[in-house]
Amino acid sequence: MRIDILTLFPEIALAPLSESIIQRARDAGLVELHAHNLRDWSTDKHKRTDDTPCGGGQGMLMMPGPIFAAVEELRTPASKVILMTPQGKTFKQALARELAEETHLILLCGHYEGVDHRVVEQLVDLELSIGDYVLTNGAIAAAVVTDAIVRLLPGALGDERSHQEESFSDPALLEAPAYTRPIDFRGLQVPEVLISGHHAKIAAWKKEQALARTRANRPDLLDS
Ligand code: ADE
Predict the structure, then answer these.
(1) Of all protein residues, whose CA lies closest to atom 9 belonging to ligand 1?
(2) What ligand 1 atom has the least distance to the C-alpha of 133?
(3) How far is the CA of 64 from the centre of ligand 1 (A)?
(4) Does residue 156 lie in a domain region?
(5) In the prediction, which pLDDT does 123 show?
(6) Do both 137 and 207 map to the same domain?
(7) Among 40, 62, 64, which residue's Cα sits nearest to residue 52?
(8) Ligand 1: does its nearest atom lie under 6 Å from the Cβ of 86?
(9) What spacing in Å lies between the alpha carbon of 191 and ligand 1's midpoint?
(10) β partners of residue 89
(11) Residues 61, 139 within the same domain
(12) Exposed (0-12), middle (13-18) or buried (19+): which is 176, by Cβ within 10 Å?
């Protein structure tokens, strides 16, 4: 898989993707990751990429020229072009799984008040938000989306089972609480069932705890 991130801040996008599991996936050739500076496609002598909104309004918008030029240079018939924006569809684990099947993603990062809408109309296959809040910069969102996708690529996680048991594998339940050694930490005990060696009881306990946690933290998941 190849992922190209188009942004005014390539370092912001790359920093969290250059360590640990994602860097190892890159080193192993599971994903080819590139972050490009959109200024490189600006034809303006000051390398400008933004301008004021037509009809007035707050802030600055990203101009269509550099974005069209960059996407036209990088895309192939197999590419999926995704705009990171708080106006997008909410990113969920199910979508991460779908996107992990693609061969080429181009993640376009907004900045300022957003991008000229002709970009959305002509170039973008999917508008994507990582949640109901506004970031300063779509590069942060692109890093989040890339991380969630790359860790799903076969071989990216050492232990393939870690996918199966984690939150959101079962669409309606969060993960149960987990404990490690020492069994007694400052007088706080690991629940006895977890050291009982009784697999059926442990599974039942985990299910019950997962339900309680979901009810407390994410009741919306149980309604859906
Ligand atoms: N850019 C700014 N906020 C964002 C969000 N919540 N999701 C995706 N891109 C964004």
Answers:
(1) 85
(2) 6
(3) 19
(4) no
(5) 98
(6) no
(7) 62
(8) yes
(9) 40
(10) 128
(11) yes
(12) buried
Structural tokens at position 7: 């942004």
Residue finishing a domain among 107, 126, 150: 150
**Cβ neighbours of residue 37 under 8 Å, at least 6 residues apart?**
7, 8, 9, 10
Q: Where are the alpha helices (DSSP H) in the chain?
A: 10-14, 20-27, 64-74, 93-99, 117-122, 138-150, 161-165, 199-217, 219-223
User: Which is it for the CA torsion 114, 117, 120, 126, positive or negative?
Assistant: positive
Query: Which letter does DSSP use for residue 46 in this model?
Result: T
Q: How many domains does the chain have?
A: 2
- Return the sign of the alpha-carbon dihedral for residues 177, 183, 189, 190: positive
Indicate yes or no: pTM above 0.85. Answer: yes
Paired with 37 in beta bridges are 7
Q: What is the pLDDT of residue 169?
A: 62
Domain residues for the domain of 184 are: 165-223
Nearest alpha-carbon partner for 168 in 117, 218, 110, 104? 218
Residue 84: CB within 6 Å of ligand 1? yes
* Same domain (yes/no): 209, 109: no
Residues in the chain predicted with pLDDT less than 50, given as ranges, are: none
Give the CA distances from residue 178 to residues 175, 185, 191, 205, in Å, rounded to whole numbers and listed in that order: 9, 14, 10, 11
pLDDT tens sequence across 88-138: 999 999 999 999 999 999 999 988 789 999 999 999 999 999 999 999 999
Q: Are residues 36 and 119 in the same domain?
A: yes
